[in-house]
């Protein structure tokens, strides 16, 4: 797999650290827990979307684009990172924000990521929940083209075979770091949503025959649907990379037991996991993705899913800025006021 064949703009402060979590490992009595700090990708408070944007915006620039159009939920980390990357490259950015959580608080609608989207100069448009948002983005980009603009449409979460290359790069980075430090990676676990992260990781680990299994903790879709979507995109990504061997279905594993009431809806397990990591290791998770992903990992550890002497790498996909849109979830006094 030769990533230099694809257009790319450098945005990530790479390599992001691969850190051991000594206090939490001890408290849980194993497995040995490591964290891949993709919350520290550098741009605009970091996160996983910056890796995808290196290849998506590389492609956009190669096509002469001047205006980026994308979408996300109101508190989308993807939109925030896209807005910042566009600003950095001198491109215009329009984001369609889907009101996926209709009863969101004033802070949910204005603070956290939304505050930063505006600061980065993105044009924000609002859409009700339940539309085909990728189609909305395509339509919007087509209208801009009719007006003579060079528009480039990015799907939700930057999840297509181009964006997923960013997580092929991350898989390669994890293997290099683990090899250099002499750490055998027995499991990789992370939060999965629009599927580009898991598809890229699976393509990267499979394409390099590393044998590293990836478990995605779903934040939205049920298991069979999520696994199918990840498999489709990972297969498409491998094809794009010129790897012809078919991807085994078993290479894609998702778990949807930690979604709770739905996308972006806090769960008590998420609050517990987020608070535990903050207080044992000083690391911030986010309420929508990495908090639920880590809650799933903790529950699986407590149920004995991993051997004590195994090394488990949690990929921290970022998003802590979203906490400011969820202050009432963590601050009962504030909620009561
Ligand atoms: C988007 C996002 C994810 C999920 O990644 P996908 O590639 O969409 O599956 C996980 N964590 C955070 C913080 C995100 O913003």
Automatic annotation (TrEMBL):
It is an enzyme of class 4 (lyase). Residues 10-318 form the Tryptophan synthase beta chain-like PALP domain. Gene3D superfamilies: 3.40.50.1100. Its EC number is 4.4.1.25. The active site is at 76 (nucleophile). The modification N6-(pyridoxal phosphate)lysine is found at residue 49. InterPro entries: ACCD_DCysDesulf, D-Cys_desShydrase, TrpB-like_PALP, TrpB-like_PALP_sf. Keywords: Lyase, Pyridoxal phosphate. One of its GO terms (molecular function) is L-cysteate sulfo-lyase activity. Its cofactor is pyridoxal 5'-phosphate. NCBIfam families: ACC_deam_rel, PRK03910.1-4. Belongs to the ACC deaminase/D-cysteine desulfhydrase family. This is L-cysteate sulfo-lyase. It comes from Pseudothauera nasutitermitis.
